[in-house]
Amino acid sequence: RSRVRSEGAGRWLDAFTWMALAIAAMGWLAAAGPRPITQLPWLAWRIKLLKLYPFRIADLVVPFTLAVTTVRWLSLSIAGAISLRRGTFAAAAYTIAFIASLLWPGVDRNPSRMRPQVREDWIASLNWIRAETPRDSLLWMPDEDWAVKWFAERPEYVNFKDCPQDTAGIIEWYERRVRLAEWKRDAAADGHFSADELAMLHEQMGITHVAASRMGPVDLEPAYSNESFRVYDLRNRNVD
């Protein structure tokens, strides 16, 4: 009877996993189509549909199912080899996994995903922006985007993780990302970013400051720099 219940639960989990993958595929299809985004047919309905977080169920269900399937396979192979009841082995494996998940240090202890020195330099750069730039400054961070508003207390031109929730806002958020990607592609074609090209960010998009680590070389003297980051004032045309 226990075996029948276990197999039934396994079939239910498999079905739920396939359902989660199907929902994720529907989300992908809702976003697929021609670019720019304004050319997508049934745009308003697609944007409303993409707000539904069931599309992200697969992010949780797939690794969970993989873990359960692994324990199930080990229960059949290893438990049989050492003459241990499969249920006993599975219970022990799940208990060990649960305890390990509580004790294992999680990535949320450093949500920036940066090395300690880089994280310290990043916060120092944002603190400098907060202290030395006008309140109406508009920022662009091409390499990092963690906790910008928290430390700098300044708005960003666009942030990948900070997507608006209204239809017009989502379209503008997407178009700004495309605009920056096209600028970066064209500006980097000759191997460096000139002061005139950076000035275009200010003149065409209103961006006043850029904080970068990998973008370069840049033909503009930074207003602030440390070992990891450089902050450029796009209103300053002094060539380095």
Key terms:
mainly alpha; 4 strands; single chain; extended; 8 helices; 4-stranded mixed sheet; 240 residues
Distance between the termini: 77 Å
Main sheet makeup:
4 strands, mixed
Question: Can you give the mean pLDDT?
Answer: 80
How helical, in percent, are the residues? 55-70%
User: Main sheet: which strands, in order across?
Assistant: 1-2-4-3
Which regions are unreliable across 5 or more consecutive residues at pLDDT < 50?
A: none
Structural class: mainly alpha
Radius of gyration: 25 Å
Q: What is the chain-wise order of helices and strands?
A: HHHHHEHHHEEE
> How many helices in DSSP terms?
8
- The 3D shape can be described as extended
Q: Kindly state the number of beta strands.
A: 4
β-strand percent reads 5-15%
Would you write up a description of this structure?
There is one protein chain. The protein has helices spanning 2-31, 43-50, 57-81, 86-103, 116-132, 148-152, 167-187, 195-205, and strands at residues 139-140, 209-212, 224-225, 230-233. With 240 residues, the chain is mostly helical. A four-stranded mixed β-sheet has the order 1-2-4-3, with helices on one face. Helix 1 (2-31) packs antiparallel against helix 3.
